């Protein structure tokens, strides 16, 4: 597994970026920027520290799938850490086995630093080697979309 990092300067307050990113006012803002990963991307659960959360979408056949995760930390407007520990296959949680071992324990961290009305969002995530090219292509697109939404 490799740790990768992306940064984006967004002309909006850290509060606005945080709320847009997590879909705090409307889940639609979360779904809009994460659509770069999967057009049906959404979440089920809470962003509260210690909470279980599902990151879900459907595949080309309409089958539901995604990640089973825990909010490892959440400091509003400053930092969010997500720990992935399983995959969702339809309605089934799979938390062990070869597919999960690639991801188990991986972290996805979001750090927000605001200076003079510009928020620098730093995303740091652990990635399995076979997803590296996909994420290096998709993360920048997703962050550009988040920037558009937060700057509105």
TrEMBL record:
**A Pfam family this chain is assigned to:** AHSA1
| Residues of the signal peptide | none
Identify the domain of life. Bacteria
Domain named Activator of Hsp90 ATPase homologue 1/2-like C-terminal is located at 11-151
Family as reported in the entry's similarity comment:
Belongs to the AHA1 family.
Q: Know the name of this protein?
A: SRPBCC domain-containing protein
Q: Please give the organism.
A: Flagellimonas pelagia
């Amino acid at each position: 597994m490799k740790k990768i990092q992306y940064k984006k300067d967004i002309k909006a307050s850290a509060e606005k970026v945080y709320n847009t990113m997590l879909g705090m006012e409307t889940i639609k803002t979360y779904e809009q920027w994460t659509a770069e990963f999967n057009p049906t991307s959404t979440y089920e659960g809470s962003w509260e520290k210690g909470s279980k959360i599902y990151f879900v979408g459907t595949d080309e056949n309409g089958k539901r799938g995604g990640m089973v995760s825990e909010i490892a930390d959440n400091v509003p407007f400053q930092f969010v850490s997500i720990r992935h520990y399983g995959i969702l296959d339809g309605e089934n949680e799979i938390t062990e086995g070869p597919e999960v071992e690639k991801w188990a324990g991986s972290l996805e961290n979001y750090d927000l630093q605001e200076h003079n009305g510009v928020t620098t969002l730093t995303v740091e995530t652990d990635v399995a080697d076979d997803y590296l090219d996909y994420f290096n292509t998709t993360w920048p697109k997703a962050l550009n979309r988040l920037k558009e939404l937060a700057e509105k």
